[in-house]
Design a protein that fits this description.
heterodimer, A: about 425 residues, alpha+beta, 4-stranded antiparallel sheet, 12 strands, globular, B: A middle domain of Talin 1, 2 domains, 5-stranded mixed sheet, about 45% helix
């Protein structure tokens, strides 16, 4: 049976007659969650959460929440409700069981309605837990979870170049909604926030309008707001061994936090670019800062985009790929072989008080352990990367992203077991 | 701007280098002035060996396996008229150079070694006006000398001023130290891009608290700034006299090292032009936003000093620019004036009002004037070396 965001057609909703009177929005998936051809929908449930190796969608709405209840039962109830709503929305169904227009006239609808007529649009919803979920600022155990807090899940250290806005940093919970239609991503966050009122409070949220990474070899490499191709050397879905080595938390990684096996850590960083100053740099300088050509994305040591950079190839003044170029600084060869699965988005939040673009890269990276896979690389980058001159980090957060919920489970269930 | 004076110890780059671009487009009707070059490991093939005088474009593709360079020399390789470096295998870079009629040499240098693979190249007289290179060489030499003198003078004043500042600070004469602070820093900010080019000294002398990496000891100007103006600090504990002496002596010692190193520098015209742009970038990212002098709020002193340094660089290059691009010269002249008028409106006594005194609208106006100047200023380097 076809289903749609207008609710199950003739499916026992309060106003089935009304629903039937409308032409239903295009159905996205059958009840088994199988996508229809040309109408991408990704299953919410599985071994790993969707939205990590899923081919990066074009749009993002990301939200961080503070948990405002002291009740463990209420927290678990929210995770159950979120799981159900996410399961529905990722199929292209309404957030609630009734639907945006199918319910009684005297109550607010259980779906906000802006996605009526839109299909699943490749929506994925990915949940994560911040350090604040385990212990509060005073170190007190909030929900009886303190002894299960992963060793690696601590607030990130201060890095040079960090100019963090507390109102854009940290969070007890996070939800990453990615879709190919911006309205579908916003719809997901809006409805989940609504379900959470009383239990959680939105701490901050971020829109991303264009992906800056590829997570599948089938995708072309997009450009960031510097105008350069970004994430050429990303870990891709097709690299099973690399995912196990660099992205998924292994079964024995942390004895205290075995619940996180099959999950990952998500580093979220709001990186503002000083766009106007960057735009005044000569092309040759821009390419030297990045270490790649702006046109094809080839490393300055030659070849094409996917040619491996040759950091030893001599240039007129040191290597032809400068040592302080971004590609040289962050390359796995110079960082003990560690790789990240990057899933960042370009953002523009209007203009700042000086008339400049309030814009940059909302950096999202999934790693097996931030202590080995992010902190050392970021420390090195902050110290020597030529690009740092044009970057200012204004938000930062770290989350533990549990494994996927299997049928009948709620998200993060193993943590509360 | 990042390290504009990288490895600037002595003039290594020929005075006349040329702008390089990556585009492959050529202007309509300019086909005979566009030459394609294929550089391989053992050959240097040009699409032609003759072109009419004027602005010539060489599209240089590296079809070999080693990094290559391409040069255009005057007859007998006396002088480099233009060069493009660091072309990786498979990549194409563009060299644009203005050439009067005459006989030249082209050279590809696969592996960047030796004389390269040379060939004669002829530029015929097209009637197009191309600057007389002899005058330009003289102007360039003059600009380099003038700018070098300016930098040395500022460095000398910085050293003398720092000695006076640390003396007052160590003696606990906060009033005198606070009066000297923005005045002395003016000499740092006028040559900031030069001073910053020493990557070992800058973090010790001019780091802001937010710039520190974990474990790095905070020293230099801003450490003492916070101690003199602790009003915005939370639960601030003043430095002891012994601590004061440590930070003061450290800064003075580093300033001496800086002054010594600056004495050994010489500047090429492209470095001077890049320095001008770089100083305005410092204004855009740190001063106009009130981030540089977080504690003392004396950002407008630094703002003025960066503009002073940028304008000095522009002025020493002005004769060259007048010849190469009079329109740009005029625009920059006007925009420096417009920005100065804005700054002058905020003068108070011998200095400036503090940053917190500026309204949001006034900050926006300053930012607009900085943008208006910085955009054309970003074309200065290419214009003076064309």
């Amino acid at each position: 049976m076809d289903v749609s965001r207008r609710g199950l057609l003739g499916g026992g909703a309060a106003a089935a007659g009304l629903a039937g009177a409308f032409v239903a929005g295009r159905a996205s998936a059958d009840e088994g969650g199988t996508p229809r051809a040309g109408d991408p929908a990704y299953a919410f449930r599985g071994e790993h959460q969707a939205g990590i190796v899923t081919p990066a969608q074009d749009r993002l709405h990301f939200a961080a929440f503070d948990v405002i209840t002291g009740s463990r039962a209420q927290l678990v109830a929210l995770l159950k409700a979120w799981t159900e709503a996410a399961d529905r929305m990722t199929r292209g169904l309404p957030a609630g069981e009734i639907g945006p227009v199918e319910g009684a006239a005297n109550v607010p609808p259980d779906d906000t309605g802006e996605a009526i007529g839109l299909d699943a649009s490749g929506l994925t919803i990915t949940f994560g837990f911040g350090p604040g979920l385990f212990v509060d600022a005073g170190g007190r155990d909030r929900f009886g979870l303190a002894d299960r807090q992963p060793e690696a899940l601590r607030d990130l250290p201060h890095f040079p170049g960090d100019n963090l806005d507390p109102a854009r940093s940290q969070g007890d919970l996070c939800v990453q909604a990615c879709a190919d239609d911006p309205q579908v991503a916003v719809h997901a966050i809006r409805n989940l926030a609504r379900i959470g009122f009383g239990t959680v409070s939105v701490r901050w949220s971020q829109l991303g309008f264009g992906r800056t990474s590829t997570t599948s070899t089938a995708q072309s490499t997009p450009r960031n707001l510097f105008g350069f191709k970004d994430g050429t050397a990303n870990v891709k879905a097709e690299e099973a061994a690399a995912l196990d080595e660099h992205v998924w938390v292994g079964a024995g990684d942390d004895a205290k936090a075995d619940w996180l096996a099959g999950g990952s850590y998500l580093v979220a960083r709001r990186i503002n670019m000083t766009i106007e100053v960057w735009d005044r740099q000569p092309l040759g300088d821009q390419e030297s800062f990045v270490g790649r050509t702006k046109d094809s994305g080839a490393p300055l040591s030659g070849g094409g985009e996917f040619t491996e950079p040759d950091f030893a190839m001599p240039g007129s003044d040191g290597p032809v790929i400068p040592r302080d170029s971004h590609v040289s600084v962050v390359h796995p060869d110079h960082n003990g072989g560690v790789r990240m699965l990057r899933r960042g988005y370009n953002f523009v939040d209007g203009t700042d008080a000086l008339g400049g673009l309030n814009a940059g890269l909302f950096f999202l990276a999934y790693v097996r352990d931030p202590r080995t896979h992010f902190i050392p690389v970021q420390t090195r980058m902050a110290k020597v990367d030529a690009l740092m001159e044009y970057l200012k980090v204004t938000g930062s957060a770290l989350f533990a992203v549990p494994a996927g919920a299997r049928p009948g489970e709620y998200i993060g269930q193993a943590l509360f077991a | 701007m990042r390290l504009p004076l990288l490895a600037a110890a002595l003039v290594a780059v020929p005075a006349l280098s040329a702008c390089t671009q990556n585009t492959t487009a050529s202007e309509a009707g300019e086909d005979d002035r566009t030459i394609t070059v294929s550089s391989t490991d053992d050959a240097c093939e040009l699409s032609g060996t003759e072109a009419p005088s004027g602005k010539l474009t060489f599209d240089v593709t590296n079809d070999g396996s080693k990094v290559t360079e391409f040069y255009l020399y005057t007859e007998n390789a006396e002088r480099v008229l233009g060069e493009v470096e660091n072309i990786g295998p498979g990549l194409t870079r563009q060299l644009v150079v203005s050439a009067p009629a005459g006989t030249y040499l082209t050279a590809c240098k696969p592996g960047m070694k030796g004389d390269g693979i040379r060939a004669d190249f002829t530029v015929t007289d097209s009637g197009a006006k191309v600057a007389a290179s002899a005058d330009e060489a003289e102007m360039i030499e003059h600009a380099q000398e003038e700018y070098g003198e300016f930098v040395q003078e500022e460095s000398d004043q910085l050293l003398a001023g720092t000695a006076a500042f640390v003396k007052a600070y160590k003696a606990g004469d906060d009033r005198a130290a606070k009066a000297l602070y923005p005045e002395v820093r003016t000499h740092w900010e006028r040559i900031e891009t030069v001073a910053e080019s020493f990557g070992d000294l800058d973090p010790k002398m001019d780091a802001r608290e937010a710039d520190l990496e974990p474990g790095q000891k905070w020293t230099g100007w801003h450490r003492m700034e916070k101690d003199l103006w602790p009003a915005r600090a939370e639960k601030y504990e003043s430095l002891t006299m012994k601590q004061r002496a440590f930070y003061a002596d450290d800064l003075l010692a580093n300033t001496k090292v800086l002054d010594h190193r600056i004495g050994e520098l010489e500047f090429t015209v492209d470095q001077i032009a890049n320095g001008s742009r770089g100083l305005m970038e410092e204004v855009a990212t740190g001063k106009v936003t009130g981030e540089e002098e977080y504690w003392s709020r004396t950002d407008l002193w630094d703002f003025q000093a960066n503009v002073d340094g940028a304008k000095e660089a522009f002025e020493v290059l002005e004769p060259i620019l007048e010849q190469n691009d009079p329109e740009l010269e005029e625009t920059l002249d006007e925009r420096f004036d417009a920005l100065q008028k804005q700054l002058d409106a905020h003068r108070e006594g011998d200095g400036f009002r503090t940053y917190d005194y500026l309204s949001a609208e006034e900050v926006k106006q300053l930012a607009d004037a900085v943008n208006a100047l910085s955009e054309p200023l970003s074309h200065l380097t290419a214009a003076v070396i064309s």
